[in-house]
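Notebook B, p. 112. Complex prediction, attempt 2.
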Amino acid sequence: MQVDIQNLTKKFGDVTAVADVSLDIRDGEFVAFLGPSGCGKTTTLLMLAGIYKPTDGTITFGERIVNLVPPRERNIGMVFQSYALYPHMTVFGNIAYPLKLKNVSRADQQERVKRVADVMGIGELLDRKPAQLSGGQQQRVALGRALVKEPDILLFDEPLSNLDARLRLTMRAEIKALQKRLGITSVYVTHDQVEALTMADRIAVMNKGRLEAYATPEDLYDHPRTTFIANFVGNPPINMVDVELAQENGQVVARCAAFTVPLDSERVRKAVAHGRKLTMGIRAEDITLGDDAALTGEVYAVEPLGREDMLDVRIGAESFFALATPQQRMRAGDRIGLHIDAERLQFFDPATGKSVLWE
Amino acid sequence: MNMNTSARARTAPTRPNLTAYAFLAPVAILVVLFFIIPALLVIYISMTDLATANFTSDVGQMTFIGLKNYETLFSDPYARKIFFNTVFYVLVTLSLFNVGGALVVALLTAHINRRAGFFFRALWLLPRLMTSTVYILMWERMVADPPYGILNQLFGVAGYGTVAFNTNHIWTFVILVNGIIGISFGMIIFTSAIESISKDIMNASLVDGSTAMQRIRYVILPLMRWPLLFVLSYQTLSLLTSYEEILLFTNGGPGVYQTEVWALTAFHRALSNYFGNAQWGYGSAFAVVLVIVGIVLAILYLRIFRFRELVSEPKIENL
């Protein structure tokens, strides 16, 4: 089922929760709504579910405008962060509930619940009550309940946020694989960029009720259109410095209070053409540590992450995240040289926060 | 080692128990003083002939007569009538108002605009806030027999014939008078129970495809089992023992015990006998029967609603 959202707006009194959001979701596509809390992503999801009615704009499922269609006529499945299982019903009762409401015969209910429960790996738990299940099992039941009526669209409202880190990883892969196999159009709301980047075909980044970007994970990471996206996507967060670009001895240099560094790349030349005062973004992985470098800094803190060490390097008042291998044995207080990969830099207009490289 | 632990097991409980009893003492003393002792006194008085008619020069004289008051009670033809009056009054008021009505009001006001819901619930609280004498006076004026009564005046204006509400439909009004006050208690409990059901569960039910009625039947009502049990049992007991409004409204009349209920009889016999003969002993017998019926009902309710099952079992943590 393809979904088309046009100029979608939702106001609660004077508060605008969602403002003028337009995007399309292809049949079978997995779209993540990513943003900090209060950005309007859940409100958008609840409008797709039919629980909130849009103040303005249209939502189209296939060929049908569904703005005023009640949830029960939308054929959607939904999974909640709190699982939202019915505590008084058994696992079987929970999964069978959507079928019972549709007056599906008892025999059919049995068969379909059994089938879904087997897919979700909860076949032996059908007699249990939700309170007797672990968080992971509860979320499987919730997913089973969403799938049992063979929905046209699956909606996920931060479904993994209540699970422990390890389980989250497994469930992430399972949900993704299941969605691909069943080919159900899915909308997945999350504030966790890793979930969005790993699972989604396309990511809609939302901020303060507006759609900041709608792109594939790779595009979002490599070509951030705004400082918000650059900041929000990527871990550790991108390093941002306000610099002034200047020509010196036929070379472009970036200058700020803390340092001056010569830079040369196509991106830098494009940025220079746009203006001189810019916000420069450098991702941690685009900084290489070495001895003879134009920039030197002092290691302020080391966070060992196992595979690598994350460094907080200070150059004057500026602070940079950089990565080192554990073999480099970095210690706080060490002085190190920083090579910046000029081909990977991002530049933004400090006034508007818009990228000067990508439209 | 073994000796040690068993020795501790024998001696250890006394000390913490003493502390626990010390903490319990203030409340326990009050309960004993104002609840258990009066209850025992009533049971004792119910086995005496304490009554103004039996007073001699020794005012307050009473003789122990065993279960004689109970014999009189069970062979009293009016006691039978009063018993069925009480059953009728409690059952109808409870099902139509204190539980049924409260549930309907709570469900309706939970499904409309929040502010409107609040307003209507506040309206239902008014009768409970009003002084009962004023409240009853209003009803009396409203339903007085023709040629009086506000209802009859309105009927006259509208061109209908008048109705002797007070004489011919008195039970309807006794139940209305009590029920309209009684709704607010359950309404408050039920509303808070409905509102405490998680928003996600309500949304899940919507997405799963429920109509409003299906949601009430399969999700809301089952999740309200405990408040329903509480209101049902609490209101049964309070209706069984309440008589204030009936005393003010009909005082058990009109006619012979037409709207007399058990608790009112206990009061009439013991404290307000028409003939000036306060039969404390006999009245206490009525009160004791009421207490026994109340205890039996409370136990029954706990059984029917399988109270034990409401206590949830521990979680099994794996996967």
